Amino acid sequence: MPDKFQNFINGKWVDAKSGRTFENRNPAHWDEVIGVFPKSAKEDVDEAVKAARSAYEKWRLVPAPARGDIMRKIGDLLVKNKEELAHEMTREMGKVLEETRGDVQEGIDTAYYAATEGRRLFGHTVPSELPNKFAMAIRVPVGVAAIITPWNFPMAIPTWGIFPAVLSGNTVVFKPASDTPKTATTLIRIMMEAGIPEGVVNLVHGGGGEVGNAIVVHPDVDLILFTGSTDVGKQISRQASATLKRVSLELGGKNAQIVMDDADLDLALDGVLWGAFGTTGQRCTATSRLILHDKIYDAFMAMLVDRTKKLRLGDGLLPTTDVGPCINEAQRNVVQSYIEIGKKEWARLVYGGNIAVQGDLAKGWFHEPTIFDNVKPNMRIAQEEIFGPVLSVIRMASLEEAINIINGTIYGLSSSIYTRDVNKAFVAIRDIKAGITYINVPTIGAEAHLPFGGVKQTGNGHREGGWAVYDFFTEWKAVYVDYSGKLQRAQIDNY
Ligand code: UN1
Question: What global pTM score does this model have?
């Protein structure tokens, strides 16, 4: 019998009211069931929101440094359980152990950052225009925050949302991706062990259609932090506008790495292999376009294909594996459909292109790392997010052309340039339209204490990470204290 898991509402583990369930399986061994989880619906969301709303009235009054102390304990527990969590996550999601360890580490970093933010949450004091009057702006929590997260970072991304939300004094309804419900469950257990009070964080499992929708239209949810596709983000934005919820969207990307002719090519090669095929290309920051200078094009392509051939597909738990499976069959089909699109567009398939079925790979959702070259910037494989191990290589002859290409999509999340010329690097920093620009670093690997997010249709202007996310999870309250003992009229009595 597979393990059975539950929702967590108002401090209690409960089934979906309907009693319905869904199975979660290992993407590297499809016959292995990880667990059975509640398939929740609107009535479960209603309970969770009710619990979060009533817990909010107490939680908002707990001093922020005390909330921070709980964050520190959560961080300590994540450190203690890091290895076990990484194993569990690799089984559930497929990426290699080294990466799932990194995923837990991002959660740890976010917890400790939140712990210290409890002693900052800085406001502003400003002079009043009137005598004997004091003015300041303070941060106040907003209310009930819904955190809706994807499967590619089953620990890091939930923590980016939940920890700053809770530290700021909000309460949470958490809906994790239905491909990674177990890591989400363990995160909740750890939060409870660290002392998060009942009702402050509630977990509702299930699909985006039913659970996600019910959350987004719920009149008593104040905030939504969503990470996922641009299509779903637009839908959430539309639905949430009915109640004017504050929404933070972190959506698609079509990130590129530029390699100039003066670059350290070995370094650039390590970068693109990690950026394109790490996490099987399933990061919103993944390198899915490589923009190569004409002068080094052929040499670099030869190096790239040679190294890509050596990447070993397999179960992420095995030390011999470089690249794990796609998350599920549907996602692997998406990858396959883009291979067909690329061929039809007359891009040249230089490596890979197939689903991988040799030996044990047949039991999972594996796809070969794939490289297209002769890609034109306007082709669909150079424009649309694929979310798999597919790299499109584009030729250019100048920095200006490279920057035009990099900016020529609807997205703007991450970007990278390899060059030894400091002048070119600074032009790239100035002119690339993206939320993140790396110099001599691949497009993946953002650190937890810096703002994370993108421009254009990658998001709606908010940022996760670091100090910036606290602007989303708090509201400004302007406070005036007049100690003159008389009515002083601003704009009137002083002019
Ligand atoms: C994502 O792919 O959704 O910068 C997040 C990175 C990671 C986070 C990726 N730290 O690649």
Answer: 0.98
